[in-house]
Automatic annotation (TrEMBL):
The keyword DNA damage does not apply. Residues 320-345, 524-543 are annotated as: Disordered. This is Crotonobetaine/carnitine-CoA ligase. Residues 527-543 have a biased composition (Polar residues). Belongs to the ATP-dependent AMP-binding enzyme family. It comes from Kibdelosporangium aridum. Pfam families: AMP-binding, AMP-binding_C. Residues 12-377 form the AMP-dependent synthetase/ligase domain. PROSITE patterns: AMP_BINDING.
Amino acid sequence: MDLDKLNVRDFLEEAAARNPDQPFLIWQDEEQTYADFVAEVDTAAAVWRELGVRKGDRVAFMADNSPGFLHAWLGLAKIGGILVAINTGFKLDEASYLVEHSEAVAALVDPRHTGFFTTIQRSAPTLRALSTLGAADSGFTDFTQAMAQVDRAPRATVDLAGDDVISLIYTSGTTGRPKGVMQTHRNYVLTGQAYPYWMGMNKGDRIYACLPLFHINSQAYSTMGAIGAEGAIVLAPRFSASGFWPEVRRHRVNVFNFIGAMAVIMSKSEPSPSDADNEVRVAYGVPALPQDVREQVEQRFKLDCVSGFGMSETTFGLLEPRDVPRKPGTMGVPRHHPDPSVPETEARVVDKNGNDLGPGQVGELVVKNAAMMLGYFKDPERTAEALRDGWLYTGDSAWRDEDGWFYFVDRVKDIIRRRGENVSSLEVEQTLDAHPAVRQSAVIGVPSELLDEDICAIVVPQPGQTPTAAELIEWCTRRLARFKVPRYIEFVTAIPMTPTSKIEKHRLRSGDYARGERFDIGEAATRLSSSVTTGPTRSSEEA
């Protein structure tokens, strides 16, 4: 296999040539064959050209799951454009940073975000072309309408190489500003080829994709996995607890990806005689489920739950093998490509100096494989920190057993894992510290009933000030995406600090400090139904 020539355009077109009349995209009650899907992708590519987009240009998408998203994205990829997918829960400042940092030349947004992008365009000198998936406001092109009118005459083919960037995946970072992971055509094709192998998929199998297309999971695993299996992607607007199983049954789904919160919701739902009435064989998700939850889901719905470890920086990593007895709580072993000519994945646990640690010793997990990022966009310092001598330093602490199975311990960096999203504690702290009644804040993750974490903000008020928890929540809600807003607010007189004036977060997590009164804002402040629409990614995004 020539890794240098792998690209998503050829990957899709070759699958379509072999299966022109087979369904590829299923959306609600509509099915689109491979041939029809590729025709829509070609048309979208023509629209991007008409809008002035060229190879290497970044294009911001802020849109929910829909067929139009897939057509536009893969049309962009066909001409060598680069997707910058923005979380649809972001507020103006958050979205603006991604557009400006990526130097996006165009944007495609849902109609409800046009106000954002009208404002963003005033401060983003590179942003020229604005379009919508739906009725367009003044200054925006209706992308769907443009597809119906564009000249579809064949155009010169753009040369695409394996190392060409296909997507910038922005991840949370401890600096408070997201990092733009440069993912390549080669990595997405390798993932699409390997995902069916990992999941034991058959040709023609159907993948249910309810996690958002602005995350790497749905981009690389669901979309590319469907192409690799020469099967179909059953696309849903979002995760719906009440609609999930009816949709899965109706469309005869064989595989789906999940985040921990989804599995907990399934396990706690009212049992039904029809629970096992489905064609799902395997579900892949992170983090590893507690053994009792896993067994309940597997037995009740008659499927196999597989856990692993991946990141925005690498779609390979670790995976539980499906052909040997499982070990509770593990992330699995290195996951490989089915073609032996592709370099195998390696994984180690190292100390702070990069020296290997033995079984049972906790250190940082580092991996090496054929599907790693090129680096962080416009960020050579953090690229050098993450990529060293061909190894990706994950920022997660782990240990391995004598058999080479790996186990997650904690995050080396201050990232909070909430409802499938990664939240930078520093970003939330900076938002709270900007409140006139706040002298200092520290933000930590605390255990959640949904397997990941809730956000707790520990706040020192300004002398003479008495901010309320509700006041601070309202302040954050106006400035941050909903999933970043703290659930708990705790008022204290002082936050423990190191001699070098750094917050002692380990003491905050252990409760070893002068505690104050903690207010539980409750789930009403964050509305789980909205948060679960976001997909998994870590330290980056977990995949």
